[in-house]
Amino acid sequence: MTAARRVKVVLAKPGLDGHDQGAKVVAQALADAGFEVIYTGLRQTPEAIARVAHDEDADVIALSSMAGSHLPICRKLKPLLEQAGLGGRLWIIGGNLPAQDHDALRALGFKGVFQSSSRLDDIVAFIRAHVP
Amino acid sequence: MKPGNLPAMETRTVTNESGIEIKSLYTAADVEAGGGDGMPGLPGQYPFTRGIHPLMYRKQPWTMRQYTGFGNPADTNKRFHYLIANGQTGLNVAFDLPTQCGMDSDDPQAEGEVGRVGMAVDTLHDFEIAFEGVDLERITVSLTINGAAAILIAMYLAMAEKRGYDITKLRGTAQNDILKEFIGRGTWVYPVEPSIRLVGDTIEYCAKHAPKYSPVSVCGYHIRESGADPAQEMAYAFCIARAYADEVISRGLPVDEFAGRLSFNFNCFGNLFEQVAKFRAGRSLWAKIMQEQYGATRPGSMWMRMLAGGGGSGLTFEQPELNIVRGAYYALICALSGAQTMALCCYDEAYTIPSEYAQRISLRTMQLLIEEMGLTDTVDPLGGSYYVETLTNQMRERMQAIMAEVDAQGGIVKLVTEGAIQAKVSAQAYRHHREIENGTFRKVGVNCYRTDEKAPEMEFHPYSEQDARAQIQSLNRVRAERDAASVQAALERVQADARSSANLMPAIMEAIKAYTSVGEITGVLVGVFGRFKEPVRL
Q: What's this model's pTM, rounded to 2 decimal places?
């Protein structure tokens, strides 16, 4: 019997935002939940995120953004992920994301949008429920 | 009555975040038994547990310095004048992320980030606009800048000089604490070694040319935000401050010629008494370190001068209006702890960069303590409390133990370079987050006393693409009008000095005065030093 492949998450910090406490907390929670987590570290360009997600064949592409540039970043990342053949994977984003931007983020393909107040177990459950 | 018969509240163990068990009652015997110093001496006297000055706020209240900056220099200048008109006594400048990372506003990586979380700055021209009409003798300016600190310090000195100020008398502060940027906050540029060299260059240069300027504000603040407990926060900050002191001393500068201008920036969220004890303990520990380990003789060299009042991780997204109350307690903690400067977190910071309204509430919170609550009437009002004095002694012992552990593991520079401190505090942050989620660490509005009511509408700080384009146009105008040959010559000197062991500040000053941009100078330095590679460890 072959073991089921572990869900693989690429968790990235896009842009110049250096607030990584939350991303690292989420990374540890996802690892504890049994996912394989590739955390990119800070200052990832959309190109770099798409490349890592492609090279790692990620099931989930997760972004953490605390400094307000989530919309321009996601607008750039969307076509890059699609070109890399990752359009069908689960895209999620968390951080300091004003409620007024949530619809725009979902429209860009980010199915899961998590405020900084989100519970870790809710993020885990969302991934389990939606991972392709 | 046997302990077994006591109600649960009386027998449960209470431990503070730094791991010290708290008793239900303290007496004089605890102070004497509680490690080290017993009752403290007088304020203004070594080891300064009760304050660095004999009269403290009776002579002068703390400086009020709200963290501010957004958009273009002209936008920020308006907010500066608003805050000064409302009674603020200092400025604390927020820069946008491209500036903090040493990039110009037209850098491809800056797209979408120009002027977003702070003021965009490219050249000296921007500082001329930002500080227009601000009396730099009356209002001291603090620059929250790290990776690009040497450049922005040079820019500030050049701007002041150009406006006719005598820089040998100019006061002000730069954050310029790069080691903590590697632990949290993340606006590093160069690898660890050249980064420390640059901090050394600024301290040495200021000691010689701008001796009233504080070139470094060592931050426990962001280490705490990254997951450190309060004792670790202060212990790691002191380890970092020692690393900078060692760098400067290795160049032959005597400790008393620069240590008096080192300052600190600490967090204050958490248990009120633990925080007050932390600050009082830290003050005496730093004095002892400077006297016993560094042979400092001037009292000023032993002073732990500090800014406090922030504590972003203590604020909540839920019921954000409670953050106004938390901010008031933060200010109370700082006033009870003898802070030199306060920069309070605003209630809307869990959502956005602060509105004018939120900043005025923070300012008024501090003014209330001064005008109505009697916090400036007497020095160290908690001094002599059996509890606070015992805890002060215990916190100092905890900090000393943590510093000894860092030394035994090879020192703070090694541990930060390897990512070991980062991994340690990150694991703690995760544990703490779980404790909040499972309710063992109580957080009002988050895991208790929740409400289903809709949160009040928050005023989001608007972001203007148009402002960002205007900033790039302004930079292009400066580039077209400046003397290209002077810029070229200055950049060549920066490069040559970077390759040698010369102090880089004179070359950077020359480049700044020729209107060379932040990104151009950083680019040359990256060419010589390379870039920091983040050790990603989880």
A: 0.96
